[in-house]
Write a structure and sequence with these properties.
The complex is a heterodimer of chains A (about 550) and B (about 675). Chain A is built from 22 helices and 23 strands. Chain A is α/β, with parallel strands linked by helices and about 550 residues long. Chain A folds into four domains: about 90 residues, no CATH class; about 70 residues, no CATH class; about 170 residues, P-loop containing nucleotide triphosphate hydrolases (Rossmann fold, 3-Layer(aba) Sandwich), CATH 3.40.50; about 190 residues, Rossmann fold (3-Layer(aba) Sandwich), CATH 3.40.50.300. In chain A, strands 12-13-11-14-15-10-16 form a seven-stranded parallel β-sheet, with helices on both faces. In chain A, helix 2 packs across helix 4. The longest helix of chain A is centred in the last third of the chain and has 15 residues. Chain A starts with 5 loop residues before the first strand and ends in a 9-residue tail after the last strand. Chain B is of the alpha+beta class and about 675 residues long. Chain B folds into five domains: about 150 residues, no CATH class; about 230 residues, no CATH class; about 80 residues, no CATH class; about 50 residues, no CATH class; about 70 residues, SH3 type barrels (Roll), CATH 2.30.30.100. Helix content of chain B is about 45%, strand content about 15%. In chain B, strand 10 and strand 11 form a beta hairpin. The chains are: A alpha/beta (about 550), B alpha+beta (about 675). The interface between A and B is large, with 35 and 42 residues. Chain B: Keywords: ATP-binding, Helicase, Hydrolase, Nucleotide-binding. Chain B: GO terms for molecular function: helicase activity. Chain B: This is Helicase conserved C-terminal domain-containing protein.
């Protein structure tokens, strides 16, 4: 028995004891191939998944390194079956290669003939490939490059893509680092993306993913299409790019519901691309409007399904995915892997926090008890209206008032799901509210006012979940969320994690109705927080007034 | 050597030595040894094998070299060579093929009596030149002298006195020991887990005596092993007597952990491991065959009684002994190592059937899975196993095994991690309070409201739960877990469920209270649940008349709350018709008298031992008593409700109990009768 910090379980989870002296080293050794699943205070759980192992293969690690790392750091003997499985899984990646053939164009070739035979016999694959060129090579229709990769991943033989990328239309883009510098991890992320060709960079909210995008553009020196979640975030990208790069406002176009500009750097929303009229996507041609050299997907974990289909046709262009988490509520991680690319860079939340780039957060769950009348209404209501009833209880409004009073003077966000409730809270607190119907101009005005400190309190609906930079927010009060969505929790927490002046820590309150589905969903979300290493406290609404701020 | 002698028949020692493909000096020594052992003797005409030796060796179809004895009057080697030279290429190829595959074949359509000139096919060419000799049927054999000629005058083409080398590579001895210890720990843990599970949900025994494929798949999934691994674990458990066929309470045969298992699980891990290895080593079971098909195409089930081989034990011991020859710091090479070991054993034990090689390679796989060997080499503990010293092996592996821990790490995401094997008592409690999420060297538990409720159901209080958590946790109990315990404690028991035969509802609270407290109503088992609701433990038929006696005027409510009026229906039966054939009456009467006499005697016996009514026993008690009676072959009196609902008593000798029916010899009927078990109200010794 050795005394390593790692315990390898037979169900392919790896438990890392955090307080062990050699834990940091072990973490470094296993991070490339294992997915961090949970990082609560004492033991972090990693999982070996085929995708993770293939990601590692794509990053140049081989099975031997993985096995060595496991053997070296493991406290107990490593289950033999697991080692065999690792070697076998990793061996599957790269047996098939997509390459450019000087005569036949795109081809799928293999060093292992039986594998090629096997995949060619699969019904799904058969339609995507063309003539058999020789024993080990088969032609592929260039338009099927993405679909083929996707289908191959599904049958467990992911192909390595060596077919290369088109350079795209050249366009000079440089980072303008006169007033700021790229953080080390940002440039590392951009570099490893560039070396890998295409792929996903995973960074926590507030860690400056926009700058990674900008750095990638500076590497590409080509026209770029940036896909973002909504218009406000599009504007933020634009402002950020103007401030941090040599690009000028004229070079950056916005392609959204309101404006449709196509410039060397174009920022489009997912929504406009996926708008469907009479069964066709009228804005799809944007993808071919220019010879893009780089496509950036912001918040890749939210990428809607139609965009995946479009992305399948863009395999010849470099693709950069940016996200805080590879967890997708719909479980389509495999498509991100095959269509955008493997994970190229990953930095855990806590690490970046420890480096001082994002603010530490204090997470508190406040439990309120439903008044008797509402409790009865809740108990007798339909299951589908229960959540709404539970999350919109009036008891929460009093708590919000108390909390706001407690944190008077600190910039505060109240975040909720249900507009009625938000309106009510806004009226009670006499604060402006931003919701779906608020015009973009008005939204930006309010956000700017909040950022500059003119407004100290803002009530926002879920439109503020993504990609809106409110670095000054110090307190967030969540009154309702969309059921148990874990990524929503991550996003909301992310609002708070931008570094604070004076090193103050952020406060994240969630108000939850006791003994209802609200509490159940909250538990799910908090489990996510705890897994991310944010220990949260639970307090009773009654104790709140006694709680020192 | 002996084989060569048999091939050659009676021969001179010089000839004999010349046909053995080995060093001359060694061959002479071997011949001398055969003579010393009196397996061969020097007859006047030359050396002969002892008669009987041939028969003993012929127990197997062919000798180790695959050659048959020479014909009684063999042709001279030169002549055979000449005949061979005449053959066409097709015939030569055919002959070599026959030689390589046991020296025997069938001719098919080839004619038997042909001359070389007439021969049309390769087979006929061979037969006509007497290079193949026809036997009964259409079989042909290759005579020894032809085989010798084909093999260049020797019985084997390869030298037989060279020991096949073992293919080895260097590997750190510490790693070997660790790998083996890890596997040893895993196998002990898995056996324990499996049998704990089977104790609660035993798989049924197939009619043929094995374990169903579906059950084996379940085991494999439960234990995170493949099916071969699962088969090995259940087979080892069987070999150690940790499981046996038993019966579930409903009488179906099932695989159940034995009492031996309880003793076993109380001993330290190293001893448990040694016990498993001992069972495996000396068992004749062949788990490696599970899942494969026998000659009839039927697949082998795990635990099937036929799944054993007399060679299994020897294969295992030999495999370990040969493996022990690999020095420390070296292991069998990946890929070629196992093959070389099998070859070495084939050389050491040339006369084993071909299946022996398979058994040896299976034994190596099993040894690795059981932690006897690790990474293809034997650790010190494995060497001791090979020497047969299991207690010493247990002591040797002890320091390598993970140490038991008695503390867990509680975390805010409501998980607890035990960073090693938990002590049994702590593990049992953790199992009760939390769900297991992941197993291995460590165990990950998750607390949920459901798992905590399980603890409360088992009688824990919130305080006890908290105290237990504080005592086993290395770190402070995280606040969310505290809250969860409180939440569960608060809702636990907020709805109560009980059993009642009838309820009483009254708007007049005073009247209901009076009724409940009336001493005369005590037998009804009334209990007040709320001021206007009481329940009774006696059924309505009893309750209703009694309440009337007590002066209440109750009304019966139907299930939907409406009032039910009881007006008894008048019942009538149809008048019977029919006529009996004359003459049958006397016969019937005689039979009746006979039956009555038998019944009276039986009745007397019942009477002699009766408290007037048969004691009612619980169904399970009755079943137990019946089984006991079957085993002891004793006579019992059973209370039995007949088709008309009347309870009677029968004196019976129970014979068999299955499918809810008891078949027993009924003393009154003087015959074997079937009784429905659910109608048996009680069982008493006669």
């Amino acid at each position: 028995m050795s005394d390593g910090p790692l315990i390898v379980q037979s169900d392919k989870t790896l438990l890392l004891e955090v307080d062990h002296p050699s834990a940091p080293e072990a973490r470094k050794a296993i991070a490339p191939f294992a997915e961090l699943e949970r990082s609560p205070e004492h033991i972090h759980t990693y999982r070996l998944t085929p995708l993770g192992l293939w990601n590692a293969r794509a990053a140049g690690h081989d099975a031997e390194q993985v096995v060595d790392a496991l053997l070296k750091w493991s406290r107990y003997a490593v289950p033999h079956a697991l080692l065999v499985d690792v070697a076998e899984t990793m061996g599957r990646y790269g047996r098939l290669r997509l390459e450019k053939h000087p005569v036949h164009g795109l081809v799928l070739s293999s060093t292992d003939r039986p594998v090629l035979e096997e995949v060619l016999r699969a019904k799904k694959i058969a339609g995507m490939v063309g003539a058999r060129l020789d024993d080990d090579t088969v032609a592929v229709h260039p338009s099927e490059r993405g679909n083929l990769k996707q289908a191959l991943l599904k049958i467990g033989w992911p192909a390595e893509d060596f077919a290369g990328y088109v350079d795209g239309e050249a366009h000079a883009i440089d980072l303008d680092q006169s007033t700021w510098t790229l953080r080390p991890y940002q440039s590392e992320a951009a570099q490893s993306f560039w070396d890998g060709g295409s792929g996903v960079v995973v960074l926590p909210c507030g860690a400056g993913k926009t700058l990674v995008g900008a750095a990638a553009m500076a590497h590409a020196q080509a026209t770029t299409l940036i896909l973002v979640t909504n218009t406000v975030s599009a504007r933020q990208w634009k402002d950020e790019l103007i401030a941090r790069t040599s690009l000028t406002a004229d070079e950056i176009g916005e392609y959204s519901g309101a404006v449709k500009e196509v410039r060397p750097v174009t920022i489009a929303t997912y929504q406009v691309l996926t708008t469907r009229r009479k069964g066709v996507y009228p804005h799809l041609e944007l993808l071919d409007a220019r010879d893009w050299g780089l496509i950036v997907y912001d918040e890749v974990h939210l990428l809607p399904a139609p965009i995946f289909r479009m992305t399948a046709d863009l395999q010849a262009r470099r693709r950069l995915g940016l996200t805080a988490t590879l967890v997708r509520e719909d479980g389509r991680e495999g498509e991100v892997f095959s269509l955008i690319g493997p994970k190229r860079y990953d930095a855990p939340w806590k690490d970046i926090e420890a480096q001082g780039y994002i603010a530490p957060a204090d997470c508190v769950e406040v439990r309120v008890t439903l008044p008797d009348g509402e409790r009865l209404a809740y108990a007798t209501s339909d299951p589908d209206t229960r959540y709404r009833l539970a999350s919109c209880t009036h008891a929460k409004i009093d708590v919000v008032r108390d909390l706001v009073r407690q944190h008077a003077g600190q910039p505060t966000l109240v975040i909720g799901q249900y507009i009625d409730q938000l309106d009510e809270i806004a009226a009670m607190l006499d604060a402006p509210v931003i919701k779906g119907e608020t015009p973009v101009k008005e939204r930006q005005r309010l956000f700017n006012a909040f950022r500059s400190g003119e407004i100290g309190l803002l009530v926002v609906s879920k439109v503020a979940n993504f990609s809106i930079d409110l670095p000054s927010a110090e307190v967030a009060i969540q009154v309702s969320g969309s059921f148990g969505s874990r990524q929503e929790e991550a996003q909301r927490l992310g609002r708070l994690l931008r570094p604070k002046t004076e090193g103050r820590s952020a406060h994240f309150y969630t108000i939850v109705s006791r003994d209802t589905v609200d509490a159940d969903f909250a538990q799910n979300r908090q489990r996510f927080l705890a897994e991310q290493g944010y220990a949260y406290r639970i307090i009773d609404a009654g104790d709140l007034t006694a709680e020192p701020s | 050597m002996l084989d060569a002698l048999l091939v050659a028949g009676q021969t001179t020692s010089a000839d004999l030595i010349s046909i053995v493909h080995a060093d001359e000096a060694r061959t002479s020594r071997a011949l001398q040894r055969l003579l010393d052992l009196a397996l061969a003797w020097e007859a006047p005409g030359g050396i002969r094998a002892l008669s009987g030796v041939a028969d003993a060796m012929r127990g197997l179809p062919v000798g180790t070299s695959g050659l048959r004895p020479c014909s009684p009057e063999p042709a001279a080697p030169e002549e055979v060579a000449a005949r061979l030279a005449e053959l066409g290429p097709a015939a030569t190829a055919l002959l070599r093929h026959v030689d390589a595959h046991g020296g025997e074949g069938t001719t098919g359509s080839a004619r038997r009596t042909v001359t070389p000139a007439q021969a049309a096919t390769p087979a006929e060419e061979l037969i006509s030149r007497r290079l193949l000799v026809p036997r009964e049927g259409d079989a042909v054999v290759l005579p020894g002298e032809v085989g010798l000629a084909l093999r260049g005058g020797r019985t084997t083409t390869d030298p037989v006195d060279e020991v096949p080398d073992l293919a080895t590579t260097a590997r750190d001895a510490a790693l070997v020991a660790r790998t083996a210890a890890g596997a040893a720990f895993d196998v002990v843990r898995r056996v324990e887990l499996l049998l704990d599970h089977w104790g609660l949900q035993p798989p049924s025994v197939l009619r043929s005596g094995g374990l169903a494929v579906r059950d084996l798949k379940l085991v494999a999934r439960e234990l995170h092993v493949d099916e071969a691994g699962a088969a090995l674990i259940v087979e080892v458990a069987l070999a150690c007597g940790l499981i046996a066929e038993g019966t579930e309470p409903d009488g179906t045969p099932a695989w159940l952990p034995t009492e031996e298992f309880d003793i076993w699980s109380g001993t330290p891990i190293s001893e448990r491991w040694a016990r498993l290895v001992g069972g495996w080593l000396s068992s004749s079971r062949v788990p490696s065959l599970v899942g494969s098909r026998d000659a009839a195409g039927k697949s082998w089930n795990a635990l099937a009684p036929e799944l054993s081989s007399g060679l299994a034990e020897e294969a295992r011991r030999l495999a370990l002994q040969v493996l022990a020859e690999v020095p420390d710091g070296k292991v069998l090479a990946v890929g070629t190592g196992v093959a070389s070991l099998v070859q070495r054993i084939g050389w050491l034990r040339p006369r084993r059937p071909t299946v022996f090689a398979e058994l040896v390679s299976a034994a190596l796989v099993e040894a690795a899975a059981l932690g006897v060997s690790g990474a293809g080499g034997l650790p010190p503990s494995g060497r001791l196993v090979a020497e047969g010293d299991l207690p010493a092996a247990a002591r040797a592996i002890e320091p390598q095994l993970p140490r038991a821990v008695d503390q867990v790490l509680l975390q805010a995401d409501l998980t607890a991690v035990a960073p090693g094997p938990l002590e049994t008592e702590v593990a049992r409690r953790m199992h009760l309070l939390a769900d297991v999420e992941s197993r291995g060297g460590a165990t990950v538990y998750r607390f949920t409201s459901g798992s905590l409720r399980r603890g409360f159901d088992a009688g824990w209080s919130a305080l006890e739960v908290r105290e237990f958590l504080t005592s086993v946790s290395q770190t402070p109990v995280p606040q969310p877990l505290d809250f969860l315990v409180d939440d569960v404690a608060r809702t636990f028991g907020s709805v109560r469920v009980g059993h009642a035969e009838a309820f009483l509802r009254a708007d007049d609270e005073a009247a209901l209270a009076a009724l409940v407290h009336d001493p005369r109503a005590r037998t009804l088992g009334l209990r007040l649940l709320a001021p206007t609701v009481a329940i009774a433990t006696s059924p309505i038929d009893v309750l209703l008349p009694r309440l009337r006696e007590l002066g209440a005027a109750p009304v019966v409510e139907a299930a939907d709350g409406t009032v039910r009026v009881s007006r008894p229906d008048l019942q009538r039966a149809r008048s019977r018709r029919g006529r009996r054939p004359a003459g049958a009456v006397e016969a019937r009467q005689a039979a009746q008298v006979q039956a009555v006499a038998t019944a009276i005697r039986a009745g007397d016996r019942a009477e002699s031992s009766r408290p007037s009514t048969a004691t009612t026993t619980s169904p399970s008690g009755a079943l137990a008593a019946l089984r006991e009676a079957i085993e002891s072959g004793s006579t019992v009196v059973i209370g039995y409700v007949d088709n008309h609902g009347a309870t009677g008593e029968r004196v019976v000798d129970p014979r068999r109990l299955d499918g809810g029916r008891l078949s027993a010899f009924d003393h009154r009927a003087d015959d074997v009768r079937e009784f429905a078990v659910h109608r048996i109200t009680g069982v008493r010794r006669a």
